[in-house]
From TrEMBL:
It comes from Caballeronia pedi. The keyword Transport does not apply. The chain crosses the membrane at residues 20-38, 50-68, 74-93. Keywords: Membrane, Transmembrane, Transmembrane helix. Pfam families: YetF_N (PF20730). InterPro entries: YetF_N. The lineage of its organism: Bacteria, Pseudomonadati, Pseudomonadota, Betaproteobacteria, Burkholderiales. This is YetF-like N-terminal transmembrane domain-containing protein. Residues 18-83 form the YetF-like N-terminal transmembrane domain. The keyword Secreted does not apply. PANTHER family: UPF0702 TRANSMEMBRANE PROTEIN YCAP.
Length: 116
């Protein structure tokens, strides 16, 4: 346990090496979370996908700088990814939810391009 505290530090008083070790750990956990979320989270660019990207970035950055406890913050990030996965799955079976997911991506951009 003391080895982990030496490597990753505790609280807000982190030296550059501890912050770097946290950044590496968060990077790889972020990759795992993105794999769990699926390609859709960064490929479709729907409002749900943007919410996940922003929340993951904001939440995981707090782990790196020591602003929040590491384990609960990573767990919260995992829950965000799971909720996104559930919403994506629900969009497959609910036409209304899928329509809400697509809103803003279709139509307005195409009309703007035609006017030009």
């Amino acid at each position: 346990m003391s080895l982990l505290l030496t490597i990753f530090g505790e609280g807000r008083d982190l030296d550059p090496l501890q912050m770097s070790a946290r950044a590496v750990a968060v990077f790889f956990s972020g990759l795992v979370f993105i794999r769990i979320a699926g390609r859709r989270s960064f490929g479709q660019r729907s409002p749900f996908d943007y919410v996940v990207a922003i929340l993951l970035g904001a939440t995981l950055s707090r782990v790196i700088v020591g602003a929040s406890p590491a384990i609960p913050t990573v767990a919260a990030s995992f829950v965000i990814v799971l909720v996104h996965r559930i919403v994506a799955w629900a969009c497959v079976f609910s036409p209304k939810l899928e329509k809400a997911d697509r809103r803003g991506r279709e139509g307005s951009l195409q009309r703007w391009q035609v006017r030009r």
